[in-house]
Amino acid sequence: MVLKALPGVGAGLARKLTDHFGTEDRVLQLLADGQTEVIAEVEGVSLKRADSLARSLNGIEDFLATSESIRLHRELVTTISSHAVNASTRSRLRNLMPVRDIEARRKLVSEAMECEFVIEGLRIPTEVEGNYDRVVVSKTPIDELKRYCRVLTPSAQETWKDYKVFKSITWIGSDGPGQVPEGWLVLPEGASTDMVLPEKCVGWFEHNLESLELLTNLPEGDGFFKYFNGIRMPGLRELLDELANEADAESIADVRDKLWPAVKELEKRIHNEVDEAMQNVKLDLSGSDMLEALADAASLQRKLAQQTRDAIEEAIETATDEVATLLGSVGVRCPRKIFKSEWPTKVDRSTMDSLDSQLEDLWKTTQSDRLVSLARRLAPLKPKCEKALRKLVELDQWLTIGRWARSVNAKMPEMCDHGITISQGRHLLIDGIADPVDYGLGLCASKDDRQSIALLTGANSGGKTTMLELLAHCTILAHMGLPVPAKSAKIGRIESLHVLAKAGGTQSAGALEQTLLQLAKVVSNTDSKLILADELEAITEPGAGARIIAGMLEAAESHKGTCMLLVTHLAPAIIEAAGRDLRTDGIEARGLDENLELIVDRTPRRNHLARSTPELIVRRLVERSQGEAKDVFKSILGRF
User: Fold this and answer.
1) For residue 573, what are the CA distances in angstroms to 498, 577, 591, 593?
2) CATH code for position 436
3) Backbone angles phi, psi at 172, to 5 degrees
4) Of the residues 102, 253, 393, 495, which has the maximum number of CB atoms within 10 A of its CB?
5) Domains in the chain: how many in total?
6) What's the per-residue H, E or C state across 373-399?
7) What is the dihedral of CA 546, 549, 550, 553, to 10 degrees?
8) Is residue 390 in some structural domain?
9) What is the pLDDT confidence band of residue 449, given thresholds at 50, 70 and 90?
10) Same domain, residue pair 343 and 444
11) Which residues contact 2 (CB under 8 A, 6 or more apart)?
């Protein structure tokens, strides 16, 4: 599949999209995933245009041949999408379209309807946006990494030594350092970008960790579960555990954080221990000792130091051992000069600064070694994980449809060659509980209902338009390979669905001419199609409307692949203009209930011209109005 194969995509738009997203495959993948809001970020591409491209890629957009067909499809998809647990699945469902080959989809959905497994925390994998500190030095440009880090090209005069000012370097190609400096990577030309910038590779797995976890815990079994077999990732569980375990680096950081407070606390403890040890020490001085001290003060200090040295050295030794235990937990040797031996004992700052530098270098080395080690093992899995997660979103789409189907008790229809018939069909998008209806038209219907053209008459607010929409819903769903809201159904395969909404009133001459041209194209083309029209007579005055409709019906009936149902209030006039009998069905209102609501049998009576409801509406107005208005309505009611 190429972008230019999509309707309305020329070389200019294809190039603009490819330049923005890097590759054509990336654009097609975004459309397949339903991420049209991302496509719409491109200047000059509206969300409506992006949705149209996605629909064209994902099915037969021309099947929905009128704006009303498109509206009904959109409402259906929105209803189904409301059962999705994950946002990525909702995005994908938004562009679920009718397709030519529905058999594989029907099998998938049928199995999903039997499966109550729910996937939570799933999303399409995404890259981590942001910059990394690593600098990549390569004689060959690596444009795809420029948005993530600095990519430098060395001049002919430069060597690797000119880049020692940077702490994290990936040197690509020959002429690199023989002994790799701390924080450097030296890779050959053509190395994977996931190894060139290991932070990006590991960051991708961390960023998508919740979704990746799902790949390690998929259920096994028959039915729908067998589709998980192709996306299992052996060995991924262990790598994800290692990814989450930063124990070594965390231990080093923890020791570094604890070291200075611990040493300062030990310094205080040394003082306290020496004070306590010296409480009972007495210094005996003879007369000669005192004379000597007067002559030489240093001799007294030596005698004092001799008395205190043992206590001080013992306290320092004990404190140093504790520091050694702390540092030893991360493999760092403890120097014996942390505390100065003179009194009062103090921490040796130069020794502490040296230890802090050692710990920082060790932490960086540990992090770098862990990063490179993980990237080396994760990089080969990344494309497989991306593909597996996208497949899992696709499978979650069918599970979502299965949940919707169970919630509305939908059934997989039988596909046939011509017509439509439903048993106990229910309109899904009306408020309240829909009354079930039975109806059939065309060759797949029961023996008495196999006409390809029919008129539908009856009560205002009786459900004529609702039934028209129900037939459209079932047709759209069936051609998407999905179940329909009915106890059973047979749906004829067609190339296009034409739902014609009720006109907004008498049209001007120019508008009427344009409408008639469009209607003529619909009824005269030889493609297999279903036409569902709502009160076409409203386009002009009733007399002319009846004659126009009769001609349109005659044209439609002349094509074997066409079925047409027309909601109308002009059935007698249309039959008279046609000069022959036409199948006429009716939805009859039988009266008003105690709440003055219409009592209607929603299933049309076959070959029955149903009365409209003006008399019942006027009777209801008589009951609900007061004063002079009530008198007016009484007078009108008497005229029926």
Assistant:
1) 24, 6, 26, 32
2) 3.40.50.300
3) -110, 130
4) 393
5) 4
6) HHHHHHHHHHHHHHHHHHHHHHHHHHH
7) -160
8) no
9) very high
10) no
11) 14, 24
Please report, rounded to a whole number, the percentage of residues in the chain having pLDDT higher than 90. 39
Q: How far is CA 566 from CA 202, 505, 569, 583, 601, in A?
A: 61, 17, 10, 11, 19
Token pair, residue 81, equals: 């999408």
Co-location of 340 and 482 in the same domain: no
Tell whether 533 and 426 lie within a shared domain: yes
Domain assignment present for residue 637? The answer is no
**Do residues 461 and 589 share a domain?**
yes
Instruction: Give the pLDDT score at 363.
Output: 66
- From CA 437, how far away is CA 71, in angstroms rounded? 22
User: What is d(CA 527, CA 492) in angstroms, rounded to the nearest whole number?
Assistant: 13
Non-local CB neighbours of 626 within 8 Å, separated by 6+ positions: none
In a domain, 566, yes or no: yes
Contacts of 86 (CB under 8 A, 6+ apart): 119, 120, 121, 122, 123, 393, 396
Burial of 253 (0-12, 13-18, 19+ CB in 10 A): middle
Q: Under a CB-based contact definition with an 8 Å cutoff, are residues 42 and 3 in contact? A: no
Q: Is the pTM of this model over 0.85?
A: no
Q: Would strands 437-441 and 420-425 be described as parallel, antiparallel, or unpaired?
A: antiparallel
Task: Print the domain residue range for 35.
Answer: 1-58
* 193-223 tens-digit pLDDT: 999 999 999 999 999 999 999 999 999 999 9
pLDDT in tens, 485-536: 999 999 999 999 999 987 655 556 666 777 788 888 888 888 999 999 998 8
419: region left, alpha or beta (phi > 0 left; psi from -120 to 50 alpha) = left
Assess contact for 160 and 174: CB atoms under 8 A.
no
